């Protein structure tokens, strides 16, 4: 396959950046998108040019590092797929492909396609954890979790924190990411004691980190490579409403 | 109060005020549709409202507060969301969101501009004094002749056009708003989501068409 790539090139956070055009003339349909870029980079290096910088790690769709907007869609056109698991057979010979980084104020571009996603970590640090006493290993059966609850928590825990929801959101909101963490912990016995504090702190962090507000476009759900449902945002909203009701136990 | 600065707190505030405004739009529509039952019906309705006396003013103050909260926070959220998305993509693509969801701020501002005109037209009656109920002869039961004021107003193409355009904006605003509060109150459960969105859009079309029917049928001289 022969492809024409329009890739965002940006030297650093302060650089203005622009799209540059490259030819990929020897693309195998069995290559992954990242392998295709690896070959383009090999050619760039051979001709003495800077290779295209992009994030990647596990290349098996579970680490959440790869982060490219391909033809206007985070992780490309294939549903429930990260860039590393997107294969070139999804494209046709002669296709023009636009490759851009996640774009959001909360994700400053470090170089080319690499963005700084520390802001998601800050949201996690605000409350995406459970506090527990240290000591011996707890008995596995001491805390019983029903199957429906466990399944619900697992569905939310599928989030790999890649930030595609932010990249897809017209408001650059991190609400789907935050809601997956809030919902997962809110239904489990380990997470319940801190549920009120957690939802308040994590939603505060969304704005202080420069993300936008959720206005129910649901683009996040459509872009999510793990199929995280916006029902978790409804759950987060419920948890927030619950957190405003004072209880006698606090 | 953190509630007023929190991203979800303000979302809930938009939903609560939005829902109350939907309730207002519903009651207002039912009252308006009495125009199709003839002069006696809508003139009696207008008289009944006026006879509420001080209650009318309490209600009006409540409405001002609702609109003020909904508009202020709507504009504030719009600018925050703009600031969060400084650079556009070379290829902008959306998959599931709707035209109405993307244009909430604009349809909202059109509705606000219309609201001011509407109050000047029918409530304060200064835009077309010659055909305002205050200057028209009273009806047979010596009530203000609201019916004739509506008919004479909407027979003017310019006035009808303003109302029809504004009601299209209202339709679009409701098409996102009606289903949106269900999600914001945390009532959607995943599988019900698509149905809620569809029902919201259908209801918005019902509201929009019912409101548009009034100027349109009068303009077409079907109601006279």
From TrEMBL, chain A:
<feature type="domain" description="4Fe-4S ferredoxin-type">
    <location>
        <begin position="150"/>
        <end position="180"/>
    </location>
</feature>
<keyword id="KW-0411">Iron-sulfur</keyword>
<keyword id="KW-0479">Metal-binding</keyword>
<dbReference type="InterPro" id="IPR012675">
    <property type="entry name" value="Beta-grasp_dom_sf"/>
</dbReference>
<dbReference type="GO" id="GO:0051537">
    <property type="term" value="F:2 iron, 2 sulfur cluster binding"/>
</dbReference>
<comment type="similarity">
    <text>Belongs to the succinate dehydrogenase/fumarate reductase iron-sulfur protein family.</text>
</comment>
<keyword id="KW-0408">Iron</keyword>
<dbReference type="InterPro" id="IPR009051">
    <property type="entry name" value="Helical_ferredxn"/>
</dbReference>
<dbReference type="InterPro" id="IPR050573">
    <property type="entry name" value="SDH/FRD_Iron-Sulfur"/>
</dbReference>
<dbReference type="InterPro" id="IPR017896">
    <property type="entry name" value="4Fe4S_Fe-S-bd"/>
</dbReference>
<dbReference type="InterPro" id="IPR006058">
    <property type="entry name" value="2Fe2S_fd_BS"/>
</dbReference>
<dbReference type="InterPro" id="IPR025192">
    <property type="entry name" value="Succ_DH/fum_Rdtase_N"/>
</dbReference>
<dbReference type="Pfam" id="PF13085">
    <property type="entry name" value="Fer2_3"/>
</dbReference>
<dbReference type="GO" id="GO:0022904">
    <property type="term" value="P:respiratory electron transport chain"/>
</dbReference>
<dbReference type="InterPro" id="IPR036010">
    <property type="entry name" value="2Fe-2S_ferredoxin-like_sf"/>
</dbReference>
<dbReference type="GO" id="GO:0009055">
    <property type="term" value="F:electron transfer activity"/>
</dbReference>
<dbReference type="InterPro" id="IPR017900">
    <property type="entry name" value="4Fe4S_Fe_S_CS"/>
</dbReference>
<dbReference type="Pfam" id="PF13183">
    <property type="entry name" value="Fer4_8"/>
</dbReference>
<dbReference type="GO" id="GO:0046872">
    <property type="term" value="F:metal ion binding"/>
</dbReference>
<protein>
    <submittedName>
        <fullName>Succinate dehydrogenase/fumarate reductase iron-sulfur subunit</fullName>
    </submittedName>
</protein>
<dbReference type="GO" id="GO:0009060">
    <property type="term" value="P:aerobic respiration"/>
</dbReference>
TrEMBL record, chain B:
<dbReference type="GO" id="GO:0016020">
    <property type="term" value="C:membrane"/>
</dbReference>
<dbReference type="InterPro" id="IPR034804">
    <property type="entry name" value="SQR/QFR_C/D"/>
</dbReference>
<keyword id="KW-1133">Transmembrane helix</keyword>
<feature type="transmembrane region" description="Helical">
    <location>
        <begin position="202"/>
        <end position="223"/>
    </location>
</feature>
<protein>
    <submittedName>
        <fullName>Succinate dehydrogenase cytochrome b subunit</fullName>
    </submittedName>
</protein>
<feature type="transmembrane region" description="Helical">
    <location>
        <begin position="57"/>
        <end position="79"/>
    </location>
</feature>
<keyword id="KW-0812">Transmembrane</keyword>
<feature type="transmembrane region" description="Helical">
    <location>
        <begin position="157"/>
        <end position="182"/>
    </location>
</feature>
<keyword id="KW-0472">Membrane</keyword>
<feature type="transmembrane region" description="Helical">
    <location>
        <begin position="99"/>
        <end position="120"/>
    </location>
</feature>
<feature type="transmembrane region" description="Helical">
    <location>
        <begin position="12"/>
        <end position="36"/>
    </location>
</feature>
<dbReference type="InterPro" id="IPR011138">
    <property type="entry name" value="Cytochrome_b-558"/>
</dbReference>
